[in-house]
Amino acid sequence: MVKCTICGVKEASYARLYSGEKLCTKCFIESIEYKVRTTIAKHKMFEFNDRIAVAVSGGKDSVSLLHILATRAEGLPRAS
Ligand SMILES: [Zn+2]
Fold first, then answer.
1. Which of 31, 63, 77, 79 is 20 to 30 A from 53 (CA-CA)?
2. Domain ranges in the chain?
């Protein structure tokens, strides 16, 4: 069993080729959410009271972005 590079406890289920990391499902999801939050903050993509539209193609990237924005992005505006 290959253990997760981050937590070192759970079995890795995803290999990130560009970094060599091997991640369990929980750490993979948390790493993606972290990347989304830091990218939004770094580029100052949103301001308070902004309305956000997400173009969803149905692929993993746009569906993941929509999910994170709708459920996990604390401090970001919610759809109304
Ligand atoms: Zn892990």
1. 31
2. 14-71
